[in-house]
């Protein structure tokens, strides 16, 4: 039987956290709660409910919380190996605000236990499930982030921002954990795809009558989107550089052709449009070549690794 450990990042979650821990303990062997600088009784509630605590003295963000949890599990497994004890084979991440349903943990870990997946993403939207229950403003933003994440990672996930996930222990070294905030969800998918890990999705449900958000959803969404786009600079240079370069180049060629035609016909002798067209062509060519060069370097580095 696989040993399962859960990570619960928490920031001021004293109201729901105790219930989440007690219900999660029915399906896992151990729980680590990362109290990310809470000002309420989150730490005390977690301890009373039977979880191990990692405490951040200041609020560092969800990404840092998950990093602390994964680092702790890696250390535990190393110590367990030295003591000839069984390691934790599966890691589950679940939010502490009560929106996720701990009773769905067996569905998350089943593909890993059967060897069908290394990384299981809980999705609200497989085959349209939960689509109608999601607040419209959230779903619009979610679709944008899903599309951007899929372009960046090369995956086809339906719920890129889900925090309810399961991981095989072999996946831990592949996660870079650079993003300190909510962009960590997309980053982990991208890292998993880059490492060639088997990623599958299973359906989950979410309670929307509980609002556990600690950040404005618009600010949150824009911040995550900008982070995803920034990650494309090295992971998808053909999209980040070459595609905009092609567009700018075509604009330059089109406007330049139009100006040349106007000049030949004597309609206009203003050289400003010509100068602008030349700048567009040069910038477009530069971006196109830069993207192609970076993509070649990326492929070369990956081949050597």
Based on the model shown, name its key terms.
alpha/beta; 7 strands; elongated; single chain; 305 residues; 12% strand
Description of the molecule:
The chain is of the alpha/beta class. Helices cover 52% and strands 12% of the residues. It has nine helices and seven strands; from the N terminus they run βαβαβαβαβαβαβααα. The chain has helices at 14-24, 42-49, 62-82, 105-113, 136-153, 184-194, 217-235, 237-264, 272-304; strands spanning 4-10, 30-36, 52-56, 90-93, 119-123, 165-168, 199-203. A seven-stranded mixed sheet has the order 3-2-1-4-6-5-7, sandwiched between helices. α2 links the parallel β2 (30-36) and β3 (52-56). α5 packs parallel to α6. The longest helix is centred in the last third of the chain and has 33 residues, at 272-304.
Oligomeric status: single chain
Largest sheet: 7 strands, mixed
The number of helical segments is: 9
Point out poorly predicted stretches: none
What's the arrangement of strands in the largest beta sheet?
3-2-1-4-6-5-7
- Tell me the total number of β-strands: 7
Structural class label: alpha/beta
The whole-number mean of residue pLDDT values reads: 87
Elements, N to C (H/E): EHEHEHEHEHEHEHHH
What's the gyration radius in Å? Answer: 24 Å
Helix content: 40-55%
Distance between the termini: 33 Å
Task: Give the overall form.
Answer: elongated
Please report which band the strand proportion falls in: under 5%, 5-15%, 15-25%, 25-35%, 35-45% or over 45%. Answer: 5-15%
């Amino acid at each position: 039987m696989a040993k399962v450990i859960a990570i619960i990042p928490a920031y001021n979650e004293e109201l729901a956290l105790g219930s989440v821990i007690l219900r999660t303990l029915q399906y896992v062997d151990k729980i680590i709660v990362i109290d990310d600088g809470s000002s309420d009784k989150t730490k005390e509630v977690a301890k009373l409910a039977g979880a191990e605590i990692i405490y951040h003295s200041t609020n560092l963000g969800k990404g840092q919380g998950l990093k602390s949890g994964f680092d702790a599990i890696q250390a535990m497994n190393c110590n367990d190996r030295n003591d000839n004890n069984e390691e934790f084979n599966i890691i589950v991440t679940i939010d502490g605000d009560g929106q996720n349903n701990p009773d769905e943990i067996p569905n998350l870990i089943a593909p890993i236990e059967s060897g069908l997946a290394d990384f299981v993403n809980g999705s609200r939207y497989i085959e349209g499930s939960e689509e109608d229950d999601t607040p419209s403003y959230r779903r619009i933003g979610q679709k944008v982030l899903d599309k951007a994440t899929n372009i960046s990672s090369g995956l086809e996930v339906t719920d890129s921002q889900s925090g309810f996930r399961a991981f095989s222990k072999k996946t831990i070294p592949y996660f870079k954990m650079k993003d300190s905030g909510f962009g960590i969800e997309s980053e982990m998918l991208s890292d998993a795809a880059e490492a060639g890990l088997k990623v599958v999705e299973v359906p989950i449900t979410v309670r929307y009558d509980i609002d556990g958000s600690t950040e404005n959803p618009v600010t949150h969404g824009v911040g995550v989107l900008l982070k995803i786009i920034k990650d494309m600079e090295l992971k998808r240079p053909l999209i980040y550089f070459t595609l905009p370069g092609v567009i700018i180049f075509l604009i330059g060629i089109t406007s330049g052709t139009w100006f040349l035609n106007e000049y030949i016909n004597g309609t206009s002798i203003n050289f400003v449009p010509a100068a602008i067209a030349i700048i567009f062509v040069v910038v477009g060519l530069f971006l196109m070549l830069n993207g192609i060069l970076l993509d070649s370097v990326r492929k070369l580095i990956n081949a050597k690794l």
